[in-house]
Specification:
- 2 copies of one chain form a homodimer.
- In chain A, helix 2 (97-113) runs parallel beside helix 3 (126-136), helix 12 crosses helix 15 (381-388) and helix 13 crosses helix 15 (381-388).
- Chain A is of the alpha/beta class.
- Chain A is built from 16 helices and 17 strands.
- In chain A, the strands form 3 sheets. Chain A has an 8-stranded mixed β-sheet, covered by helices on one side. A 5-stranded parallel β-sheet of chain A has the order 9-10-11-12-13.
- Chain A folds into 2 domains: 3-57 and 361-410, Urease, subunit C, domain 1 (Roll); 59-349, Metal-dependent hydrolases (TIM Barrel, Alpha-Beta Barrel).
- At the A-B interface, helix 2, helix 10, helix 12, helix 15 and helix 16 of A face helix 2, helix 10, helix 12, helix 15 and helix 16 of B.
């Protein structure tokens, strides 16, 4: 049966930046089949009154590590190496699938409540993450974050090659493409040429995308150049074919003009994680330069351990204002630029028809309460969405045509059970308390 | 009658950074009279069960222009001069007291809902702002933003001198000091020596504080140096005695090492407005340097027209992470540094005993729901407050001992009436629609 959402201001996220007042959108199955400015007569399906709210395509969180919700604020206030080696890594060694599932569900719930309908996740215990994604109802490109610490490389002995094969076979394309498995390389600095070649070939052979971390910190970027005769991480990975498939590169903070040209040429999307980059002292990504070079830039939260929350509207606002400030240019990025990064650019980055209100696109839609104090007055819907909205303004999250969150209630996640599982199982396992 | 709030994790904001689990706080009149780690027996006053929430001193928004809530998102996407001259100033010329009251009430409600209990406001139609502050119940240092466009200066003809005299007489110290009037100079670039001398003397004579904008943009800073033989705005205003009283200087983005030493010597507090500074392309204030020089740094939202909301936890988070990012130092500022800027430093800046849970301090207290998804888990209360909390987590706002907001309900503001007044009166007056 079709569903019509009516009585909304629809922000289409089309190239013309159309905002339709008093609009309707019709959804059939998991797709948008119609939309317009006046409610059609004689519609016989289910109707949802948007009550004058703002309807926006669901937000795309294009780089995250969702189980790391367990480490929210854990070890903050230490330098990066201490934080990783004395806090994060020791805890990560204790994970089991059950704990990952609990913490992934908690993280997904937080994202869903703030309007995210699609994610790109990279984490270990990937199968456990996928089970929670499957039941939560959002779309996801999920990857295991391939590492290769030992040489020589043997694909039959490398743990992540085995994981990659199993994930692809069991999960890729499930639920009519809602769930996709990406190939992945955690980073140039945590692997070697053997894995790069194997993953690049595997992705090409199986029609997968690629997810990597790229030039997040200056240390990582410079160390790569030292190891590889002055070549940057982007150049090194490109040489090994890693970017010959649809690919997303998280961070790109220290990328160079040559890297921007390379990423544009290869069609690699840069995933900007402004909160994480600031908090961890990584720097400010050259988003304006990347865009000027023709690179598709999308937005991510990174893991909650380095954010420390996933109110995606907060990340969107920071993306919208940060470039202006550091470049001393109030027009460096506009509200529309930031909204595109959070929606349609994310869809493009993940190879999905999501992030726009358009016929044939996924019915990933969120509704915001226009009566919320922080959205009054509304001189311009885009400005309010980019600079003033909070995740708490989201009153409905429809993912692939299915309402999964409404007025504070989760319809696909038993949040009380999840909280109990986190407090009663995951936290004692990970933190001994 | 005394009130006890119990069953809370109390973040005292004392120099030792004490976090008291299972704590209580007793309030009598408008002050905190007791607090501790175990609920005392035999208490006979009113009891409020904090239900395991986090109790924090109320947040201090130390620089704002609250009626500008009316211009939320208005003219965004234009350069600074176009924005001011084609959007903001023409609208400001249309204000009347009634419209200011409606928009001030809307802005105060938004702040109260996100945990603000004390503000420093600077705006025209100041009497109208003060009326709304009075009924809302929060504390405020209010100023008119003195300007002097014409020379020669005549205090009997300058509009803002008359306003200053009237405000001081009618409002300063009202409600046992809850409402204070500050002297003010909008900025070096909007006034001349006559007003500086007069305001400095007036403030000294009447025991008032001083509120100024200082070196917000590079243009403003450099133009001052051109006009005044290389002297910065801080140096120029200091020469005229403007900083010989307790003073707050908003922005300080382009202040120099000499300015930092001067501000520290004079005891001037710098008010950091990170969202506004980024959004308007003003730059990034040298907060770490100001702190190192011994300057008290507090936090403000600036007007909603340049923010574009007042979820003060969002501003707090940006303050906490921005310096780390631009200095590539994950320890440039800590969670505690940011929390201090938002609470106790703000109290100090405004000459008030607020921003700490301590006997004899104002009973300005906010309670956050620790069961909110974005606050789970809680490894460290300060980290969660600085990096993960949202305004929407605030379930109670107690200002000067009186609960003014609880579970989404305003107890001192008729929010439906305010919304009607904004939509039915203020917006038509200001925007002709």
């Amino acid at each position: 049966m079709s569903t019509m959402i009516y009585n909304v201001t629809a922000v289409l996220m089309d190239p013309a930046h159309t905002v339709l007042p008093n609009a309707y959108v019709v959804v059939d199955g998991h797709q948008i089949v119609d939309f317009g400015a006046q409610r059609p007569q004689g519609f016989t399906g289910k109707c949802i009154d948007g009550k004058g709210g703002i309807l926006l395509p669901g937000l795309v969180n294009a780089h995250t590590h969702v189980p790391m919700t367990a480490m929210r604020g854990y070890g903050d206030g230490n330098n990066l190496q201490d934080w990783l080696h004395n806090f994060i890594f020791p805890v990560e060694a204790k994970w089991d699938d059950r704990a990952v599932r609990a913490c992934a569900a908690l993280g997904l719930a937080e994202m869903i409540a703030s309007g995210v309908t699609c994610i790109a996740d990279m984490y270990m215990h990937t199968d456990a993450v996928l089970r929670e994604v499957e039941s939560a109802g959002i779309s996801a490109n999920v990857s295991c974050g391939g590492v290769q610490f030992e040489e020589p490389f043997d694909p039959d002995k490398n743990h992540d090659c085995a994981v990659q094969r199993a994930l692809t076979e069991q999960w890729h394309g499930r639920d009519d493409g809602r769930i996709r498995v990406d190939a992945s390389i955690h980073g140039e600095y945590t692997s070697h040429a053997g894995l790069w070649d194997w993953m690049a070939q595997y992705a090409a052979d199986h029609g997968l995308g690629m997810h990597v971390h790229l030039s997040e910190t200056q240390t990582e970027h410079e160390a790569c150049k030292s190891r590889h005769g002055g070549k940057t991480p982007a150049a090194v990975l490109a040489e090994h074919g890693v970017f010959d498939v649809r690919a997303i590169a998280a961070h790109c903070v220290w990328t160079t003009p040559e890297d921007w040209a390379l990423l544009a040429e290869k069609g690699v999307s840069a995933i900007h994680n402004p909160v994480s980059n600031l908090k961890l002292g990584s720097g400010v990504a050259p988003v304006v330069d990347l865009k000027k070079a023709g690179v598709n830039v999308a937005l991510g939260t990174d893991g909650v351990s380095s954010n420390n929350c996933t109110d995606f509207f907060g990340d969107l606002k920071l993306a919208a204002i940060l470039q202006n400030g550091v470049r001393c240019d109030p027009l460096a990025l506009t509200a529309w630029d930031a909204l595109e990064m959070a929606t349609v650019n994310g869809g493009k980055a993940l190879g999905r028809k999501t992030g726009r209100i358009e016929k044939g696109y996924e019915a990933d839609l969120i509704l915001l309460d226009s009566e919320a104090l922080n959205l009054i007055p509304c001189h311009d819907a885009a400005n309010n969405l980019a600079y003033a909205a909070h995740g708490s303004n989201v009153v409905m999250n429809m993912a692939r045509g299915k309402v999964i969150y409404k007025n504070g209630e989760f319809l696909t996640i038993d949040i009380d059970r999840v909280k109990k599982e986190v407090a009663g199982y995951a936290l004692p396992l990970l933190f001994g308390r």
